[in-house]
Specification:
Elements: H1 2-9, E1 16-19, H2 22-30, E2 35-38, H3 44-51, E3 57-62, H4 67-76, E4 77-85
Parallel strand pairs: 1-2, 3-4
Length: 106
């Protein structure tokens, strides 16, 4: 929720919230997010891509630390987008493929 609120404060146009907990998504709706997605349902990714015209978003904040969440966040980012990993993670167990441009990790 902090990332959602921070994005809104910083002037993000569209802000999307993803979670497994529908109560948390209801709270996110009250903060003015563009759309919420419950990741327990298989169609969340196709619905998200439809809303973003198959482009994804410029910045994704991943805070669950869950391997599936990290893999999904890579699919949500637009080409050239940024994925910010905020949770405790073990990157060695993340499934999926992506093309990562050379970058500096701080």
């Amino acid at each position: 929720m902090l990332a959602v609120q921070w994005a809104k404060i910083c002037g993000a146009g569209d802000v999307f919230a993803f979670d497994t907990d529908e109560d948390k998504l209801a709270v996110a709706t009250k903060t003015g997010v563009t759309a919420t997605f419950c990741v327990k349902y298989e169609n969340y990714l196709s619905r998200f891509l439809e809303i973003t015209c198959d482009k994804g978003v410029d910045v994704v904040f991943e805070s669950s630390g869950n391997a599936a969440g990290i893999g999904s966040s890579l699919l949500l980012a637009a080409k050239g987008g940024v994925v910010v990993l905020m949770g405790m993670i073990r990157i060695d167990n993340v499934d999926g493929e992506c093309c990562i441009a050379p970058c500096r990790i701080r």
